[in-house]
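Form 7-S
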Amino acid sequence: MPYFDTASAAPLHPVARQALLAALDEGWADPARLYREGRRARLLLDAAREAAADAVGCRPDELVFTSSGTTAVHAGIAGALSGRRRVGRHLALSAVEHSSVLHSAAAHEAAGGSFTEVPVERSGAVDPAAYAGALRADTALACLQSANHEVGTEQPVAEVAALCAEAGVPLLVDAAQSLGWGPVAGRWSLLTASAHKWGGPAGVGLLAVRKGVRFAPQGPAGERESGRAPGFENLPAIVAAAASLRAVRDEAAAEAVRLRALVGRIRSVVAERVGDVEVVGDPERRLPHLVTFSCLYVDGETLLHELDRHGFSVSSGSSCTSSTLEPSHVLKAMGVLSEGNVRVSLPMGTAEADVDRFLDVLPGVVAEVRERLGAPGSAPPSPAPAASLVVDALGRRCPIPVIELAKVIGEVPVGATVTVLADDEAARLDIPAWCEMREQEYVGEEPADRGSAYVVRRLS
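Output:
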C-alpha cells in the first residue's frame, strides 16, 4: 500500500533501524558516568551531536536533543522570550506556523505578552517587507518556518533573517519539514526540528541556539543537555536520528530531483483530470515531495476514506476531516479552498508506478463522492428568471453549503444575489473561493440570527 503522508511521519530509514539496534546494545548506560560503559555511551552521544550539528550548520555545543520537535519549539520560544524579557514581551510569527508555535504564542499572550501574526500571500509565503513591518522596538523574538507543513511552500528565511538581524531581533526557524533536504540558509538565531520527519525514530527533537543569543531555559533546571532539555537522554533514538539525518542528506540531491518531477506530474495531471480543483501552494518555491490540492463539492473525510480503501494513505486540512468546524489555519490564512483538501507527501524511494496508479484512481473517487453528495455538474445551469434566493444551510457541514449555492445560482437572473445562511466556519473560506473559481461576485458576509449570511451575486 503506497504511503503518501511522510509530512506527518516518514517511514523509519534503514540506517536509523541499524543504528537504533546497535545503540541498544552499546548505548544503554548513563553518558554522564565515568566508568567504561558510561564513557562508551558518552562517545556515542557526542558523535551524534556532531553529526546533527554538521547537518544543521551550527556548532555541536549549540545543539541539544529534546523529546520531540514540539518540545524543542516550546523550549526554544520560552527560553528566547525569557532571555530577552528586558527588551520586551512581543513575539512576531507568520500566520501559517506549525500549531506548536501558535500554541506557544497563545500561552505567551495568556501570561501577559503579545504577538503579531504576519499574513501570507495566496501562495502561503510571507512578504519579507510585511514581516519586517511586524517587528517593533519591544519585539523579543521572531518565528518563521523554513517550509510549510501543509502546502510545502518554502519561506524566504534568508531575507527575513537579514531583516531581523538588522532590527536586532533573533529569529527562530522551525525546520521540521525541510531539514532532511538540506540546511536552512540565512542568519537564523534558533532552529528546531523533529527526527520522525526525515526517517528517524519518533521522540527525538533538535534545538539549536546560536552563541550570543540571550536564552534562559524555563521550568525546573536539569543537569543534562546544557540544562535546556531535562531528563535522561534517549541515547539509542538520538544515535538513530543523527545517523538517519546524515543518510537522507546523502540521498537528498538525487531524490529531490526525482520526487520534484513526480510532484510536478501530480500538480498538472490532477488539474487536468479532476474538474473544479484548486492546487495550492507555490508551484516553484516548494518542498520537492509535497503537493496539496482541494476538490470542490467534496467531503474531505469521505475522500480520505475512499483513497485509503484503494490503498493510498494521504492527509487533509479540510474541516470535514476533524471533529471541529474549523478548516486548517494554513488554508484559512492563504484564503484558498479548504473543502475536499488532500495533502500528498511522497517518501524517498516512491515508485513512479504508485504515483501513476494514484492519478488513475483519484478522478473516479472524487466523482463518486460528489455523486453521493448530489453535487452539481461542472457546467452552470441555464439562466432562468427568478427573484433573489436565500439558501438555508444552517447546521450542515462542508461541502454542503457550497453545493446548495451551486445548485441554485442559475435560478436567479444575472445581477441578482443568492444568500447562503451557514454556521460552518469553512463556509467563510469556501464560498469566496467558489466565487473565484466560478467567476461570480462574492459580495460579502452579513450577520444573521444564527451563523452568518454569505451574499453572492451572479455575473454569468
